[in-house]
């Protein structure tokens, strides 16, 4: 496994070691001991699977309280995955990182608790899996900020996105009623 820091050092790009031959391939998406040796002590509590058509934007979502970390990868297709630091008092508050995840590349992204997560689909059909740490989904803690908040400045690859009603109505980061503190 190869870990790469992104522009937000706590958000990590992970490139698993892939073993391939004429039958196909094998890789470890997560290995408790290997990750522990790399300094990441993670306890996954939920595994989510999402499917979206081309042009869908989901996010930017997080939980507060009961924050979650997310290990995200594409099972099918390609997406632009986004992490935004929403921890009040953080030196990188409001900054984001955008990483392309591709099923063929088998790369994945670790987004720690205290960051909002969103993505845009770049393929006709995109399926993602994300393993969640911290807490299982808690509807009363479910939060969102606007996907196109100009203060965050994400350069989305979709001009007329397919959005949920929740994402269309999400507040700007400056108006968000509940944000995690730093450190989260």
TrEMBL record:
CDD domains: cupin_RmlC. Pathway: Carbohydrate biosynthesis; dTDP-L-rhamnose biosynthesis. It catalyses: dTDP-4-dehydro-6-deoxy-alpha-D-glucose = dTDP-4-dehydro-beta-L-rhamnose. InterPro entries: RmlC-like (IPR000888), RmlC-like_jellyroll (IPR014710), RmlC_Cupin_sf (IPR011051). GO terms for biological process: dTDP-rhamnose biosynthetic process; polysaccharide biosynthetic process. Keywords: Isomerase. The keyword Isomerase applies. The record marks 137 as: Participates in a stacking interaction with the thymidine ring of dTDP-4-oxo-6-deoxyglucose. Transmembrane segments: none annotated. The active site is at residues 61, 130. GO terms for cellular component: cytosol. The keyword Isomerase applies. It holds the Pfam family dTDP_sugar_isom. It is an enzyme of class 5 (isomerase). GO terms for molecular function: dTDP-4-dehydrorhamnose 3,5-epimerase activity. Its EC number is 5.1.3.13. Catalyzes the epimerization of the C3' and C5'positions of dTDP-6-deoxy-D-xylo-4-hexulose, forming dTDP-6-deoxy-L-lyxo-4-hexulose. Belongs to the dTDP-4-dehydrorhamnose 3,5-epimerase family. Homodimer. NCBIfam families: rmlC. This is dTDP-4-dehydrorhamnose 3,5-epimerase. It comes from Tistlia consotensis USBA 355.
């Amino acid at each position: 496994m190869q870990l790469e820091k992104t522009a937000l050092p706590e958000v990590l790009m992970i490139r698993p070691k892939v073993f391939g031959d004429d039958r196909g391939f094998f890789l470890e998406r997560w290995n408790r001991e290997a990750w522990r040796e790399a300094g990441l002590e993670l306890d996954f509590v939920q595994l989510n699977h999402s499917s979206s058509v081309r042009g869908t934007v989901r996010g930017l979502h997080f939980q507060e309280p009961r924050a979650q970390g997310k290990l995200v990868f594409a099972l099918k297709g390609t997406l632009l995955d986004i992490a935004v630091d929403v921890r009040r008092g953080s030196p990188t508050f409001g900054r984001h990182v955008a990483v392309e995840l591709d099923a063929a590349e088998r790369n994945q992204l670790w987004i720690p608790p205290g960051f909002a997560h969103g993505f845009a689909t770049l393929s006709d059909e995109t399926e993602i899996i994300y393993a969640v740490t911290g807490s299982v989904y808690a509807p009363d803690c479910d939060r969102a900020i606007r996907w196109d908040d100009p203060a965050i400045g994400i350069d989305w690859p979709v001009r007329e996105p397919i959005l949920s009603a929740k994402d269309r109505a999400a507040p700007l980061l400056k108006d968000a009623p509940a944000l995690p503190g730093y450190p989260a």
